[in-house]
Amino acid sequence: MSDILKHLLALGLTQYEGQAYEALLHQSPLNASDISKITGIPPGKVYSVLENLVREGFCLMIPGKRKRFSAVCPKAAVGGIVDSRRRAELEWEQRVTLAAEELDRQYEARLENDSTADYVSVYTTPESMKMKFWELCLGSARLIRAFNRPPYMLATFSATAQRDKRNLEALTQKGIEVRTVCEADGVNPQELEAFADACARSGQIVRLSGKLPLKLHIFDQDAVLLTLTDHPFCRRMCYSLLIKHAAHAAAMIELFESYWERALPLADHVAAGRAFREERRTA
To answer: How does pLDDT run across 227-280, given as a tens digit for each residue?
Structure first.
């Protein structure tokens, strides 16, 4: 098996499709009979193989008394595969999102009709935690409050993932204010400066504090998402606890505001750190 054929198979082509395209790379145009003779593809299958290559963007069909086929530039052909897979992934994500929204509507409807509805939900996988986090963010009306402790994960509103970027843009368009108190203990100055830049890009208002009691997000006035690591069955497991209860949220808001009033604005802390390092450098 040639190296070219190995690469083509790795792209998802079948053995016959790879052989036909390799033949066309070496000599184009060719008719189906020529390709069958060169590659050994059975005459009864060669037309369907070539039709697949045309459909997938690897070759062109030249009309005439005898149809002939010509190879498409490999970069263009591979680029078409990449675009096709990206579209498929986007369509899959959209289908999953729609399905999740419909399931969530049914779930919420059940809760509304259930007099014994539970106010507490637990999320134990990173994907479910992240999905619930963004759902609560985008469902907020005015204000999100957060206690952020290392390791900094969701609260930085990471824009590296395409989905997170879209969610962040939607959050910004809604005009939702985000106030975050970060635990500064154990974070070196360089990390703080990098974090400050990330926060500025995400539109957060950040202040620094000493030790924080826990990691949480408060969404408006009624929902609190706690990120915990003291799972009763696995101490190393990180999980999220969602409590939708107005009285509990009011207590958490009061706790947050007491820390917020005493916390130092992040920009002031970073500026002071830079000034201190500059003073030491010039001393």
So the answer is: 887 655 444 467 888 999 889 999 999 999 999 999 988 777 777 767 766 777
Q: Rounded distance, CA 43 to CA 48, Å?
A: 10
DSSP structure class, residue 147: E
Q: Rounded distance, CA 192 to CA 198, Å?
A: 10
In a domain, 237, yes or no: yes
Same domain, 67 and 126: no
pTM of the model: 0.53
Same domain, 197 and 136: yes
Express each pLDDT in 182-218 by its tens digit.
887 776 767 766 766 677 677 788 888 888 888 899 9
Q: Number of structural domains, the chain?
A: 2
Q: Are residues 126 and 212 in the same domain?
A: yes
Rg (CA), the chain: 29
Reference 253, options 183, 179, 160; nearest CA is 179
**Sign of CA pseudo-dihedral 264, 270, 273, 278:** negative
